[in-house]
Amino acid sequence: MKYKIAISEPSEAIDPLVTNLSAYIAKSKRALIVTGAGISCSSGIPDFRSADGLYNLVKKKHPDIVLRGQELFDATLFRNEKTIQCFYTFMAELRSLISKANPTITHEFIQTLTNKGQLLRCYTQNIDFLEEDLDIPTIQLHGTMKEVKCTLCSSNYEFTDAYEKMFRAGEAPPCPRCVSIDVERTRLGKRQLAVGTLRPAIVLYNENHPNGDTIGQLQVSDLKKRPDLMIVMGTSLKIPALKKFIKQAARIIHEKPGGCVVFVNRTSPAKEWDNVFDYEVLGDSDEWVKMTNKKMANEKLMTQTANRLRRCVKEQDDDDDEEEEKENKKPARKTKSKKAPPSSVSTKTSSSKRAPLKRTLSKSQTTLQDFRVTKRRACTQKAGKAV
Ligand SMILES: [Zn+2]
What we know:
The chain is 51% helix and 13% strand. The protein contains 14 helices and 10 strands. The protein has a 7-stranded parallel beta sheet with strand order 1-10-9-8-2-3-4. A 3-stranded antiparallel beta sheet has the order 6-5-7, covered by helices on one side. It starts with a strand and ends with a helix. Residues 332-387 have low confidence and may be disordered. Residues 150, 152-153, 155, 175, 177-178, 196 line the site of zinc ion.
């Protein structure tokens, strides 16, 4: 982790870092955004893992069933008639909340990046389809509550008020397509087949995404376009496949000097993310967006800051080159290298012998690392003056 911006801190303390981060965003050409429940909270849709209100409501209707958090989104629910009813009641309450919700300031921020042609794609874990109310190119990693799908033939239909009413009563509506096939077979005097039921078109735990392959291909194609920025917002990063994608994307972004990877959430990420995120913004995503929008409205400040940050990276790059040259000129002496403790210098020497692509990667990582230590004070002080 390089820089921490705790929104709860006094604004003058975090202002220089907010300016720097805003400049990275303002000048980005190919941004990836990854979102989770945290960005929809202000629209009235709770984070399901802590949605006590919803669970209490379900509990009232099904007092004999104890299900909490993740369990209500688990495919194993479908093994038992009682838990199926519980699932449908929960989905009805969820749909009711979602249908009243509007996109948040954070959604509008993503829309603005889209309008400016800066957004490569938004990957969301949210099933509230608030991105669709706007015009954000989005991949819904966990499906959508906008539709229902047949458990048998996979036909999709709009999730209507009528379906919500049936769900609330704990009923699973029959699939219209399956029913019409069945009616036709009966008319022809053929053997009856099973009729599927409808459920929300969301991906449950212990279930594969029906479009998993397509999503995988899109991710590969997005990474080939060499994104220069990634903002991960409102997620506690628990899903293994998504974690892998974020780490892959971060590696590619860090190959480029000036590439930036940002985490925005109410709570800090686990230690495994220490070398993935350059900026960690702790707090509400809407609050951060408001601060960032203010900065980005000042085009002159953004250009000046971006130029200064570029110079910082370049200076550091030049310093690294000089050090590498010095090291390469030194005669290799076995005794000395044995005695010398492991240092950043010796790392750089070995990196210079690597293949070109690996060397670039290693070098940019070194640059970012050193940038934290040596340039932080100078850069943040200058930013303070510019504001
Ligand atoms: Zn069907």
